[in-house]
Amino acid sequence: xxxxxxxxxxxxxxxxxxxxxxxxxxxxxxxxxxxxxxxxxxxxxxxxxxxxxxxxxxxxxxxxxxxxxxxxxxxxxxxxxxxxxxxxxxxxxxxxxxxxxxxxxxxxxxxxxxxxxxxxxxxxxxxxxxxxxxxxxxxxxxxxxxxxxxxxxxxxxxxxxxxxxxxxxxxxxxxxxxxxxxxxxxxxxxxxxxxxxxxxxxxxxxxxxxxxxxxxxxxxxxxxxxxxxxxxxxxxxxxxxxxxxxxxxxxxxxxxxxxxxxxxxxxxxxxxxxxxxxxxxxxxxxxxxxxxxxxxxxxxxxxxxxxxxxxxxxxxxxxxxxxxxxxxxxxxxxxxxxxxxxxxxxxxxxxxxxxxxxxxxxxxxxxxxxxxxxxxxxxxxxxxxxxxxxxxxxxxxxxxxxxxxxxxxxxxxxxxxxxxxxxxxxxxxxxxxxxxxxxxxxxxxxxxxxxxxxxxxxxxxxxxxxxxxxxxxxxxxxxxxxx
Length: 483
Description:
Blueprint: E1 6-15, E2 18-19, H1 21-30, E3 36-37, E4 53-56, E5 59-62, H2 64-67, E6 68-70, H3 92-107, E7 124-125, E8 128-129, E9 132-133, E10 138-139, E11 149-154, H4 162-170, H5 184-191, H6 204-213, E12 219-222, H7 228-242, E13 247-255, H8 259-264, E14 293-304, H9 305-311, E15 317-326, H10 330-333, H11 350-364, E16 373-375, H12 382-395, E17 401-402, H13 405-408, H14 415-429, E18 431-432, E19 458-459, E20 464-470, E21 475-482
Parallel strand pairs: 6-14, 11-12, 11-13, 16-17, 16-20
Antiparallel strand pairs: 1-2, 1-14, 1-15, 3-6, 4-5, 7-10, 8-9, 13-14, 15-21, 18-19, 20-21
Helix pairs in contact: 3-6, 4-5, 11-12
GO biological process, one term: fatty acid biosynthetic process
InterPro entries: Beta-ketoacyl_synthase, Ketoacyl_synth_C, Ketoacyl_synth_N, PKS_Beta-ketoAc_synthase_dom, Thiolase-like
GO molecular function: 3-oxoacyl-[acyl-carrier-protein] synthase activity
């Protein structure tokens, strides 16, 4: 099977700029940012967002860098998760992944065919398209056979809140008020509910949605940082090509707002606040000094082209090429995880990005001059931004560049999927979304080769979009989508 026989038929988004395809598209093309400043007051809407306070002259002062975020607005897991009792074993990233996947299923028009039914409960019928028989993946009742639909989700380590562990920690304090780690095992057994673990397992987003679909096909969870979403799509394409599934739900979710993660690992710098605040996320800007913390989830339905044709569904786009690469960054190879701003900090590897881009383009059979737009992954970390800039200028320097993180902030393991969704929007609308801070991406000295970005909406003149993602350790993925 050729890659061009694989099509995306539905998309779902849960983001700071909108929930669902329509609102996401309108905000992306309108350059509407989801970045905002939170005050020190905690509400039900922002209680999951970590904010740091500094002590100045004995007074607690809110650290502005941690108060500017791209958090979700008007999202409630109760609107999507059924049965609602499942919410008690779902952290926020699981809820958003579930919601994005559900939206993608609806967008693809798959509801009448789900939940799936095992093949042995009903004899399969063979759909025909233009008189030609296609794979018998439906039951006599018109449902998808359970073994013909699967799920692959991009994920990451999911962190609980400090409050959930506070009772156990308190029991580890001695009479001298010192913390004794040796007592934590027994304290945790008494004070932490056994269901706690189920809320934070990285494979639970795929698990929950497979159950609701009754999907018995391939099930996997990919945890490779920011590239997880695109890597999940690549994995799903492999299943479809091998003929072990006909429909795949591919999703990814992530967050950079959690307190425990912020305390455990500071692996990328945070952006200084600028005015207007909505422009604080400034990937590829010459004065970029860090990322804005965000959250979100995205999902796509990918299926064999003949299945979409049989259902009378017009694809959003064809997946014609993809590649995944890993070339260790200097920092990773030398165990030097850091958030330094110095150019030689060693995060990321431009060679990995170049290899992934060229690999995807070669499989798709397209050249640099045929690429209508590149969806970049840069998030405002000047070290990683420089890696991406070098790669794009080496592979396709003339291609217009889209930077979704300028509106979405850094969404963790969801960020690669968000780029893929931006590519789908670009192809569907025929428009290249603006980069609000495009003027700041030009080096006045002329020493840095600029990217082809614009603060205005531009037409997509060539119907080929390349989405890329990469990580600090040196992972890189690239996916080509065409009409």
